[in-house]
Amino acid sequence: MKHTRLIAIAALGLLLMASCSTDDGGNPTSAMGEDIQVTTHVSDVVTRGIFETATLQNFGICIEGKDDVASLLYNNVKMAKEDDGKWASSVEMIWPSAIPTADIIAYAPYQAEATRDLASKKLIPVSVKSVQTKEDKSSDFLVFKANGYSPTSIDENNTKRIDINFDHAMSQLFVTFNFSSEFTNADVDLSKIEDVAVDGSVLDGICDFTQEKPIVGVKPESSAERITPEQDSFQEKDEHHANIIARYSCLLIPQSIAVVDKPLTVSFRLGSTTYTWKSAADITLDQGKFYTLSLNIKKQNAVMEGNIKPWEEVSNDKEQIID
C-alpha cells in the first residue's frame, strides 16, 4: 500500500505528497501537480459529541474535479493517525495543475464499506451503538463538504492547502437524576443504579452528502430501540451537596420522536423499584446540538418527573443550556 506522510499543523494537519500514479480506484493523474497540504479541525462548540481535534484517529476523504484534459478522483481514501501523531493516506494523491477547483467530502470515523454508495449516491450509512461507553467513540459522526473548493497556494513551490473543518452530525442527550433529600448515601450509590435506559429513538440513519450541507436522518422504516447511556458523573451527599446526583449521556440520530408512535422514555432500577419517565410531548433532536433532561426522583410513590430542555444558540457560535 502506498503511503503519504503527513505533518501536524495547528491542531491536526496532513501533507499529501505529490507524485505520478494511479490510485486504487483507477484515477488518472497528471504528470504535473502540486503537493497538497490539508489541515483539519473538529468543532468544539461546548460539548456536542465525543470526537475532539486531539482525539480524532481516522477519517475518509473524497476529492473530485475535472477539466478538458485532466481529472481528479479520490474516493473514500482513508486517513489514519500514526503513533508519532502524523497522518498517512491509504493511497498516494496529487492535485493536477490543470484543475482549479474540486468538490470535497470528508467524514469520520472512516468506513471502508461506504466506498460504493459514497462515489455514486453520496450517501453513507450511520448509526449509534445500543450500549455507549466513554471508550467507544464509534457512535459519534463528523462531516465536512465543500463544492468548487479552490485550494490556497502557500509557498514558492505552489503547494496547495485544503482546510477541513469538521462538524458534529449527531444529537446528544444529557440525563441527570436528582435524588430528593429523602435518599441517603446508603440508599443510592453508583453500583445500585442499574438498567439505565433511553428508549424510543431510531439507532440507524443515513448521511446525505447531496444536500448543501450534509444531513443526517433516520434510516427509512427503522424501528425505535433502547440505548444504554454512558455514565458521566456521580455526586453523593456531603456537607456541600444536599442531594445525590447521577449524570448520564448518549448520542442519538437526529430525528423527530412522536408521542403517538413511541415516546422517548428514560428508566432505571434502584433495588426492587423501577423509575420511568415518558415524554408528554413530541421531541425534535437537531443535528449537532445537545439537549438536557433533568429528572427529579422522589422516594415516595416512585415518582420521576422532568422535561427536556433544548439548546439555545447565542453570540460567538456558543451555546448554553436553557434554565
What does this structure look like?
This protein is mostly beta strands and 323 residues long. The protein contains 1 helix and 28 strands. The strands form 7 sheets. Strands 1, 2, 4, 5, 6, 7, 9, 11, 12 and 13 form a 10-stranded mixed sheet that branches. It has a 5-stranded mixed sheet with strand order 19-20-14-25-26, with no helix packed on it. A 4-stranded antiparallel sheet has the order 18-15-22-23, with no helix packed on it. Strand 22 (265-270) and strand 23 (273-278) form a beta hairpin. The longest helix is centred in the middle third of the chain and has 6 residues, at 115-120. The protein is elongated and about 75 Å long. The N and C termini lie far apart (54 Å).
How do you describe this structure in short?
The chain has 323 residues and is mainly β.
List the helices and strands and how they pair.
Layout: E1 4-6, E2 12-16, E3 33-34, E4 36-42, E5 58-66, E6 71-81, E7 87-89, E8 95-96, E9 102-108, H1 115-120, E10 123-127, E11 142-149, E12 152-153, E13 160-168, E14 171-179, E15 193-202, E16 204-208, E17 215-218, E18 224-227, E19 230-235, E20 244-252, E21 255-257, E22 265-270, E23 273-278, E24 283-285, E25 290-298, E26 303-309, E27 311-313, E28 319-321
Parallel strand pairs: 4-13, 14-25
Antiparallel strand pairs: 1-7, 2-4, 3-8, 5-6, 5-9, 6-7, 9-11, 10-16, 11-13, 12-13, 14-20, 15-18, 15-22, 16-17, 19-20, 21-24, 22-23, 25-26, 27-28
